[in-house]
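Hello,

Our lab assistant flagged a job as stuck in the queue for most of the afternoon. It eventually completed. Since we weren't sure the result was trustworthy after the delay, we are filing this so someone can double-check. Below is the sequence as submitted and the structure that was eventually returned. Let us know if re-running is recommended.
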Amino acid sequence: MANAPRLRLALRTPLGITAAVASTIIALTAIFGPMLVGDTADRIDTDAIGKHSGTEHLFGTDALGRDIAARVVVATRLTLELTLFATLIAVVGGLVLGVLPAVLGRRAGRLITATVNLLVAFPGLLFVLFLAVIFGVGTFSAAFAIGLGAAPSTARLVQNLTASIAGTDYVAAARILGVGRFRIIVRHILPNIAEPVALFVSTAAAGILVAFSGLSFLGLGVQPPDYDWGRLLNEQLDRVMVDPMSAVGPGSAIVLTGITFGLIGEVVAKASAGRTAPQAELKTADAVAEQPAEAAESALLNIDHLRVRFPGHTAVHDVCLTVAEGEAVGIVGESGSGKSLTALAAAGLVPHPGRVSAGTLRFGDRDLNKQAPKGTSMAMVFQDPMASLNPALTVGRQLAEVAEVHHNAGRAAALTRAVSRLGAVGIINPELRVRKRPHEFSGGMRQRVMIAMGLMGEPRLIIADEPTTALDVTVQAQVLALLRDVRTESGAALLLISHDIAVVSQVCDRVVVMYAGRIVEELPVGDLADGVAHPYSAALIGAVPSMTTDRDVPLATIPGRPPEPGEASVGCPFAPRCARATDRCRTEEPVLEQLGHGRRVACWDPITTATHELEEAR
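-- returned structure --
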């Protein structure tokens, strides 16, 4: 919801003052009105039947001589109670229908979504009248009809908001940590959609007020001896041409209260402004070099012939990769090369409608083809820490949740561990910072928090996806040093995803180069300087300036562009950008072949320094 300082500022504006004064007057009228003028409103005076408006009776009297102005005041309480009751029904129904697709299976979710869409498309007034007939004439029957009639539009909004939040990194992180669906909805989704839902409800309440008054006016709502503003309008229908002021009282009350609901929504919106919102056919599998059987069996993470497909194209082609216990492996490549999707496939987080298939996809003793990763043995550090952390919760609460869910720790013990983990990643004054929300941290500190979250358990593998993106050079060096320290102290393996080969070379033992969804080279970090065999790897290294780079010479660039997703290609996908490309490169895709110990390359014409070794390997 809107934070307190912004709300106070909004209430000091003319709009805020007007809304506050109007809502206060209406509330006081509803509370004290029946006590002050209740007797006057119910007093029958046969001598004053049908009197016109004047100084004695502001809006005149009704057919029994009762003062209409007093009755308008008394009707305020019942009108507001029924309006708020119907609004509550709309909110509860909308929330249930809105979040159920995220809880139930895909088929049931689609059925609920289709039902909501059908109800929204149906004219609202006719739907309300239909429900009113079904429930029967009466006060609470009308309230149920109005509330249920407004629920579909609320559900549509909640469904859209839930879908946008469900795709965020912090929800994905909660899933990989094994947090249940209900807890994800309550802790991560509902708090982050509360603000727009509240804005919608505050304006929808005005429509509910008008609709309920309309039902009462038609005789389907409040029944005698009770009365609300709509009922009072109905009673004065016969006199409206003789004494229009008799209808001004209840009519004005409906209009002014509806405007007040709208003003409240505008104030909440103003108080919320500026908040940061929580983003060709495949070759056969035998074209890829098999990994050494001994290394694959002993590896902590074993990926063999991995493919990630989306409708219309394949994003990852036959990737074979291993990460040993305690090893640091880097995956580099341009945007769209498939490096992040490879990591997400290992974590079971490939977004719908992506489909993952692999000959082997194993983490430790867990077959990921059959079971999703679970627990805290695999930690994820996402690219954008602001999107990865829940803006509605304090940092400490988010870290503590890991210990509460997976280690059955109490709140106090979990929070103590969160403080300890924040201190371990270099956060100053962790006892104080643990109570802050993500927007109160700098980018580098948020990244440290993400690493601390991974350390709340005992991870065997940390997957860091572009952890230094958008950080300045100094903070980037600190985060990389922290990853090295964490790996040393915990013994965890590291899979580091980056487009910057220089970043990977500072942390990793081995580098995997990907292009167009394929691994084109794999080599030890020590061979990066003068031992790369693939022209694409050499181009990536050449594009990184160093302290010895001649400033008079333009930086090296890679001509052309990477292939678009789904773009058909023949031969080597890098051939259109490669200066060494031959006719064979343009017509036949190279296979990924072993090139000595710990090295693989997919190139028909590798760089000279590695040609002899490759020929011997062939």
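-- support follow-up --
The delay was a queue issue, not a problem with the job. The result is valid. The chain has two domains: 75-272, 285-377+458-547+554-617. Residues 285-377+458-547+554-617 form a domain with the Rossmann fold fold (CATH 3.40.50.300).
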